[in-house]
Amino acid sequence: MADDQIAMPGVTAHLTIREGKGAAAVDFYKAAFGAEETGRHLADDGARIMHSHLKINGGSLMLNDDFPEYTGGIAVPAGVTLHLRVDDVDIWWERALAAGATVRMPLDNQFWGDRYGEVVDPFGHHWSIGGPVKA
Q: pTM of the entire structure?
């Protein structure tokens, strides 16, 4: 059984990437979040991604390119944020910004005891990054 077919416990996010930019999204997630791609299946056109399985910080993320010829078109869902709980927020934050993410909520020490901020990736998906405040 291929690594990308192993059963995954819990909930796994599955992103649809618009405008045939799935491969660029995989490259961004590798640069921004240290993702490891464990499997990729291309469409018959040899360009668009039917399925990609990524591992980020021990969790799974799946993605595919949009296929408007089958779905009638998609929109990035409003109100969805993917959260990364990490050991060193500043390192993850800076890496995401260097890879091309933009700040949605500045990174800061929060009232609930975490160091936390939010970014938007180049494909419109929102990510929160949080972890312990350094002493």
A: 0.90
